C-alpha cells in the first residue's frame, strides 16, 4: 500500500460540506458462493438515510436486511460473500472503493453498529469498562486510565446505575437490558454520524424493550445521528421510525413514510404482514396468514419473488420483475417518498 | 399372612384401576379440568463441593393458583424469569413441585405414580418453543410423531401406526408423503407443525404450549396460530398458552393470567385484563407493547418501568413488584397482597372486579379501545 493510500482523505467532516443524504445505498448486490450454488442474498437494494432520520428496514429472516447492513459496515465474510455490483456512498464517497485502512477509519468512528444479542457480541473474559475503553484507546490513543474514565462517562450516559462501581464488572454480571445499554454505549463512544441497529430489542422483554428504544431515540436526537433500524417487528417500527423499507428475498418491495405504510400499504406482501399480526387493542377473528414459505435464496422464483405466495399474482408476475416505482394518488398527484415494486400497486393501494 | 399381602395387592391394583378410570373419564365443557392450588417450586442454591450446604433457594414459582376449564385457552404472560416455563414443567410432572397441588379431574398429579401417572401424561401433552432443538435430528418425522405410540401402545396398534402418523401429518397441514424425511429438511414453521402433530398423537385433552410461535417469522406465526385454533375446535382441546407476546396471547386466549416473579399478579378474561387492568404491573406491561399503528403512538400513555426484575433468589418483602411500582407505599413492603377481587371493587358488577394481587388496585385503561 502506498503512502498516498494511507493518508488519503477521510470522508468529509461534520461541518456539512457534503450535501445530500448521509448514507446512500445504490443498486447493491450481495451473493454467497456455497457448495449448493450461489445464494443471492441482496439483489439491488437502494435506500438513503439523512442525519437525524430513522430508517426502518423490515423483513423476515432471509430477506437480506442484515446482509445489507453488514455490507455497509464492511463486516461481511468475504468469501463466501461477494459484492458483484453496487455502491455504498457515505457522505458522497463510495465505501466499497476505499482501502481497508480508510474503511477502518470510518467504521466505529463514523458508522457504528448495535447487534442483536448483546451477550454473544461482548467478550466474556474482558470487563465492560475495558471493552468500552478500547474504542478510545484504539481510535484516539488515550491511556488506559483516561479510557476507563471515558467508559464510566459513557455508562452514565446510557443510564446504567452506579456506573463507577460497575465499570470493572464482566458482561455476565449484567442483565439483558443493561448489556444492550452497554452495546449502545459502545456504538456511541466516538459520536458517530450513523448507527445501524440490527434487531436491538428482539432478545429483550417488553418493559425493557421500551426503556432501550426510548434511550436510543433520545440519544439519536441529542447527537443528530442517522439511524438504520433493522427489525421484523412491525410494532417497534411504528413507534420509532420516520420511513420504512420493506424487504423480501433481497429486494426492497415497498418504501414509504411510516404513517402512510400502515394506513395504505402498496404491496401485497406488506398488506399480508400487517393483516397477519394480532393486535393488542383488537380481538380479531381468524388471522390472515400469508400462505407458503419465504423463498430459498438459491432458487428465487422468476419474476416477482413474492408471486408464489401472492393472492393477486397473474402471469406477468411470474415472468417480469417489477421495478421499485413511485406510487401516486388515484388522480396522479405525487405521494412523496412512496415506492412499490408490484405490477398491481394501483389495485393494492386504491382497491 | 401370605393371603393378606395378596389381598393388599389386589386392593392396590383395584385402586389403581379406579384411578386410571377416573383419569380417562370425560369432563364436561366449561368444567375445570385442571386445578392448580398454591403451586411452588424452589430450586436449592448450594455451596461447597463435598458437603453441600443449602444457602438459599431460587423461588421460581412461589404459590400459583388457577383453574383451566375444558375447551378453553388460558394464556400465561410475563417477562423472562417470572416462572411461566417452570409452571409448564410442573404441570407436566417433569419437575417435582416443592409444595402445592395440581388436580387433574380431581386427582392430585403431584402425588401420582405408576400406571395412573402414565395415564395422566397421556392426556397432558406439550409443544415446545424451539422447533430446532426439540426434534431429534437423527429420527425421521414418522419416528418422531410415532414415538408416543411406543410408550402408550394402547392408543394405536402396531400395524396401524404408519397410517395414524400420516393422518396426523395431514391434520397439521403437512404432506403425508414427508413421513420419511428428517427435521432438517423442513422450515421452522413446518417443524413446529411436526411438534404439534407429536403433541396430538395420543389424543390428549390438554396441550401445554410453551412459547410455540416466538421462534417463527411473522408471516408464519399466523399460520401456526390459525392451525392451533382449528385443532382446538376439532379435537376439543384445552390449551395452556405460555408466551411473552401480549398481542398473540390476547388473540388466542379466553382467559389470561399475568405472572411476576413466581406469583400470579392478575387473572381474568381477556377483556378484563386487556381493557380493565387493575394491577400496576399489568398496566405497565400493556402500555409498553409497541402497537403497529403510528397514529396510536401520539395519543398513548406509556408507563415505562425503571430497573430490572429482582432476583427470584432474593425477592423483595411484601409485594414483589413494589421495587418497580410507582404506587408503592409502606403497606406494600410489609404485607403480601393476596390474589383476590380487590376490596374497592368487591360486589360491584364491573369488569374491573376480577382477581388482582394489589393493595392499591385501581382501574386504568392503557390499551386504546376500538
TrEMBL record, chain A:
Belongs to the ABC transporter superfamily. InterPro entries: AAA+_ATPase, ABC_Ni/Peptide_Import, ABC_transporter-like_ATP-bd, ABC_transporter-like_CS, Oligopep_ABC_C, P-loop_NTPase. Gene3D superfamilies: P-loop containing nucleotide triphosphate hydrolases. The lineage of its organism: Bacteria, Bacillati, Actinomycetota, Actinomycetes, Kitasatosporales. This is ABC transporter ATP-binding protein. Pfam families: ABC_tran (PF00005), oligo_HPY (PF08352). It comes from Streptomyces bikiniensis. Residues 1-21 are annotated as: Disordered. It is found in: Cell membrane.
UniProtKB/TrEMBL annotation, chain B:
It holds the Pfam family ABC_tran. The keyword Lyase does not apply. SUPFAM superfamilies: P-loop containing nucleoside triphosphate hydrolases. Residues 34-286 form the ABC transporter domain. Keywords: ATP-binding, Nucleotide-binding, Transport. InterPro entries: AAA+_ATPase (IPR003593), ABC_transp_ATP-bind (IPR050319), ABC_transporter-like_ATP-bd (IPR003439), ABC_transporter-like_CS (IPR017871), Oligopep_ABC_C (IPR013563), P-loop_NTPase (IPR027417). GO terms for molecular function: ATP binding. Belongs to the ABC transporter superfamily. This is ABC transporter ATP-binding protein.
Amino acid at each position: 500500500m502506498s503512502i498516498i493510500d494511507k493518508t488519503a482523505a477521510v470522508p468529509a467532516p461534520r461541518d456539512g460540506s457534503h450535501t445530500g443524504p448521509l448514507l446512500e445505498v445504490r443498486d447493491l448486490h450481495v451473493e454467497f458462493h456455497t457448495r449448493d450454488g450461489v445464494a443471492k442474498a441482496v439483489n439491488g437494494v437502494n435506500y438513503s438515510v439523512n442525519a437525524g432520520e430513522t430508517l426502518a428496514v423490515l423483513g423476515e429472516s432471509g430477506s437480506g436486511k442484515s446482509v445489507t447492513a453488514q455490507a455497509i459496515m464492511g463486516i461481511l465474510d468475504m468469501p463466501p460473500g461477494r459484492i458483484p455490483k453496487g455502491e455504498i456512498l457515505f457522505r458522497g464517497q463510495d465505501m466499497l472503493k476505499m482501502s481497508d485502512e480508510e474503511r477502518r477509519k470510518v467504521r466505529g468512528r463514523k458508522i457504528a453498529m448495535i447487534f442483536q444479542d448483546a451477550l454473544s457480541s461482548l467478550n466474556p473474559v474482558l470487563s465492560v469498562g475495558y471493552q468500552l475503553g478500547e474504542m478510545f484507546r484504539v481510535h484516539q490513543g488515550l491511556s488506559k486510565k483516561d479510557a476507563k474514565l471515558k467508559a464510566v462517562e459513557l455508562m452514565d450516559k446510557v443510564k446504567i446505575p452506579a456506573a463507577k462501581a460497575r465499570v470493572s464488572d464482566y458482561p455476565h454480571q449484567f442483565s439483558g437490558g443493561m448489556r444492550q445499554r452497554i452495546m449502545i454505549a459502545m456504538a456511541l463512544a466516538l459520536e458517530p454520524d450513523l448507527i445501524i441497529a440490527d434487531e436491538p430489542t428482539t432478545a429483550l422483554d417488553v418493559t425493557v424493550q421500551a426503556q432501550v428504544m426510548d434511550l436510543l431515540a433520545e440519544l439519536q436526537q441529542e447527537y443528530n445521528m442517522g439511524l438504520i433500524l433493522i427489525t421484523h417487528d412491525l410494532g417497534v417500527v411504528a413507534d420509532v421510525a420516520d420511513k420504512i423499507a420493506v424487504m423480501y428475498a433481497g429486494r426492497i418491495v415497498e418504501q414509504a413514510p411510516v404513517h402512510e405504510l400502515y394506513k395504505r400499504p402498496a404491496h401485497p406482501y406488506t398488506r399480508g404482514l400487517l393483516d397477519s399480526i394480532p393486535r393488542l387493542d383488537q380481538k380479531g377473528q381468524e388471522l390472515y396468514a400469508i400462505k407458503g414459505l419465504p423463498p430459498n435464496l438459491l432458487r428465487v422464483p422468476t419474476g416477482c419473488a413474492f408471486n408464489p405466495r401472492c393472492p393477486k399474482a397473474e402471469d406477468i408476475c411470474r415472468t417480469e420483475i417489477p421495478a421499485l416505482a413511485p406510487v401516486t394518488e388515484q388522480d396522479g398527484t405525487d405521494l412523496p417518498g412512496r415506492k412499490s415494486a408490484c405490477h398491481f400497486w394501483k389495485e393494492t393501494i386504491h382497491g | 399372612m401370605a393371603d393378606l399381602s395378596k389381598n393388599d395387592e389386589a386392593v392396590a391394583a383395584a385402586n389403581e384401576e379406579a384411578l386410571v378410570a377416573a383419569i380417562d373419564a370425560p369432563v364436561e365443557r366449561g368444567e375445570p379440568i385442571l386445578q392448580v392450588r398454591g403451586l411452588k417450586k424452589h430450586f436449592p442454591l448450594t455451596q461447597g463441593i463435598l458437603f453441600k450446604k443449602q444457602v438459599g433457594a431460587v423461588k421460581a414459582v412461589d404459590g400459583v393458583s388457577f383453574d383451566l376449564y375444558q375447551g378453553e385457552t388460558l394464556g400465561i404472560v410475563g417477562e423472562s424469569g417470572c416462572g411461566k416455563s417452570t409452571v409448564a414443567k410442573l404441570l407436566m410432572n417433569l419437575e417435582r413441585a416443592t409444595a402445592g397441588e395440581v388436580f387433574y379431574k380431581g386427582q392430585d398429579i403431584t402425588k401420582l405414580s405408576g400406571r395412573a401417572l402414565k395415564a395422566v401424561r397421556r392426556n397432558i401433552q406439550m409443544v415446545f418453543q424451539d422447533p430446532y432443538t426439540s426434534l431429534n435430528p437423527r429420527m425421521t418425522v414418522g419416528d418422531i410423531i410415532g414415538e408416543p405410540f411406543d410408550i402408550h401402545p394402547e392408543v394405536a396398534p402396531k400395524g396401524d401406526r404408519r397410517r395414524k402418523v400420516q393422518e396426523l401429518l395431514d391434520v397439521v397441514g403437512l404432506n403425508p408423503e414427508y413421513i420419511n424425511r428428517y427435521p432438517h429438511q423442513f422450515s421452522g414453521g413446518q417443524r413446529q407443525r411436526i411438534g404439534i402433530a407429536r403433541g396430538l398423537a395420543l389424543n390428549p385433552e390438554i396441550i401445554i404450549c410453551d412459547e410455540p410461535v416466538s421462534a417463527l417469522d411473522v408471516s408464519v406465526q399466523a399460520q401456526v396460530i390459525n392451525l392451533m385454533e382449528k385443532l382446538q375446535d376439532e379435537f376439543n382441546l384445552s390449551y395452556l398458552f405460555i408466551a411473552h407476546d401480549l398481542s398473540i396471547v390476547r388473540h388466542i386466549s379466553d382467559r389470561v393470567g399475568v405472572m411476576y416473579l413466581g406469583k400470579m399478579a392478575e387473572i381474568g378474561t381477556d377483556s378484563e385484563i386487556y381493557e380493565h387492568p387493575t394491577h400496576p404491573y399489568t398496566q405497565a406491561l400493556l402500555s409498553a407493547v409497541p402497537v403497529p399503528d403510528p397514529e396510536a403512538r401520539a395519543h398513548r400513555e406509556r408507563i415505562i418501568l425503571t430497573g430490572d426484575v429482582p432476583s427470584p433468589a432474593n425477592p423483595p418483602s411484601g409485594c414483589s413488584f413494589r421495587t418497580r411500582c410507582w404506587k408503592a407505599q409502606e403497606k406494600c413492603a410489609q404485607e403480601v397482597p393476596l390474589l383476590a377481587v380487590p376490596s374497592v371493587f368487591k360486589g360491584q358488577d364491573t369488569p374491573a372486579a376480577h382477581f388482582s394481587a394489589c393493595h392499591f388496585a385501581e382501574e386504568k385503561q392503557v390499551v386504546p379501545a376500538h
